[in-house]
């Protein structure tokens, strides 16, 4: 997967302009086929040096691979990757990729009724109305969550 910069012309005026496309390459037999997954528009406000990392991050999100955040990839690119991956999933619901990892998928949560300092609770707890959540890719918690916790003692 990569980002292609394409120069085209306006049909009416003939004036050239540039568009950006997210392209997927796949080998079919002895031939490599390239297809446009998403038109990114004419104003991609990300330096060209970050394009390969952006395409890699979108591919990771589409394939459900949760990697460690890339420190060299700016926050703007992380947001773009999540937005573009969500657009690809929405446009192609029959996509043959296991789309299971959009870590920052939009979910609405109600604010806590009282602040944690008022109730004496630890800052990490917050009240959420489960009926108000909108999940893009719901998933259950499994062994991977335990690995993310590390060596913290487990209380069952």
> What does the radius of gyration come to?
20 Å
| Global structural class | alpha+beta
Mean pLDDT equals: 74
Major beta sheet, strand line-up: 1-2-3
**Helical content (DSSP H or I, runs of 4+):** 25-40%
Low confidence ranges: 98-116
How far apart are the termini?
Answer: 43 Å
What is the count of helical runs? 4
What is the H/E string? Answer: EEEHHHH
Strand content: 15-25%
Please give the largest β-sheet: 3 strands, antiparallel
Task: Tell the overall outline.
Answer: extended
The count of β-strands is 3
Structural descriptors:
alpha+beta; 156 residues; 26% helix
Report what the structure shows:
The protein has 156 residues and is of the alpha+beta class. Helix content is 26%, strand content 21%. Strands 1-2-3 form a three-stranded antiparallel β-sheet. The model is unreliable at 98-116 (pLDDT under 50).
Provide the fold topology.
Blueprint: E1 2-9, E2 16-28, E3 31-41, H1 51-63, H2 75-91, H3 116-119, H4 143-149
Antiparallel strand pairs: 1-2, 2-3
Helix pairs in contact: 1-2
Quick structural overview:
The protein has helices at 51-63, 75-91, 116-119, 143-149, and strands spanning 2-9, 16-28, 31-41. The protein is α+β, with helices and mostly antiparallel strands and 156 residues long.
